[in-house]
Amino acid sequence: QDSIPFHPYYTIKDLFGMGVFLIFFCGFVFFAPDYLGHPDNYIPANPLVTPPHIVPEWYFLPFYAILRSIDFTIFGIPAKLLGVLAMFASIVILFVIPWLDTSKVRSSKFRPVYKWFFWLFVVDTFILGYCGAKAPDDYFMGVPGLKVIVMGQLSTLYYFAHFLVVMPLVGKMERPKPLPASISESVLKEGANA
């Protein structure tokens, strides 16, 4: 038999994981409910003063950096509209990944070249998040001469290049590792002998 029943093995494993998550979740809810909030939310509102730097929540920061990184006009289309289009395109492109990935093997475990590009994409997303949290005129990580806006533009360029160039080309050119004959061979390594 090349499989194991779902219940009770995965049920117990998932219940344990959910219990660990709930411990941390309840810790935040009951003991530190404002821990992940932005400090500007605790300043009393003043209708006559706009805060100098408004940022969204942390999970929107990469998309905010993409929105803000478009500061040039193309074919008469204003920069603000291009930024909004780029931000929405960065979300929509996630929905078309199945058609952009041209590899016959979907798992990165068997695709050594794409695995490196994936981790480069993860780093790029963190850089976009950092750029979204900082003012555009600041220096990126304190490096003189490298502005946050320039690093945001480079990261935005790679964000779209990853999906529109890297995924299709690596899928066509990469030679994946051979797939295992069975699940047990892949997981246990000695399952093929049993």
TrEMBL record:
The way it spans or sits in the membrane comes to: Multi-pass membrane protein
**What Gene Ontology molecular function terms does this protein carry?**
metal ion binding; oxidoreductase activity; quinol-cytochrome-c reductase activity
Spans through the membrane:
15-37, 81-100, 112-130, 150-170
Q: Is Iron tagged as a keyword?
A: yes
List the InterPro entries: Cyt_b/b6_C (IPR005798), Cyt_b/b6_C_sf (IPR036150), Cytb/b6-like_sf (IPR027387), Cytochrome_b_C_euk/bac (IPR048260)
Can you give the residue ranges of the Cytochrome b/b6 C-terminal region profile domain? 1-181
Which cell locations does it reside in?
Membrane
The record's Gene3D superfamilies line, in alphabetical order, gives: Cytochrome Bc1 Complex, Chain C
Zinc-finger: is it a keyword of this entry?
A: no
Q: Name one GO cellular component term.
A: membrane
Q: What is this protein called?
A: Cytochrome b
Q: Which organism is it from?
A: Thalassospira lucentensis
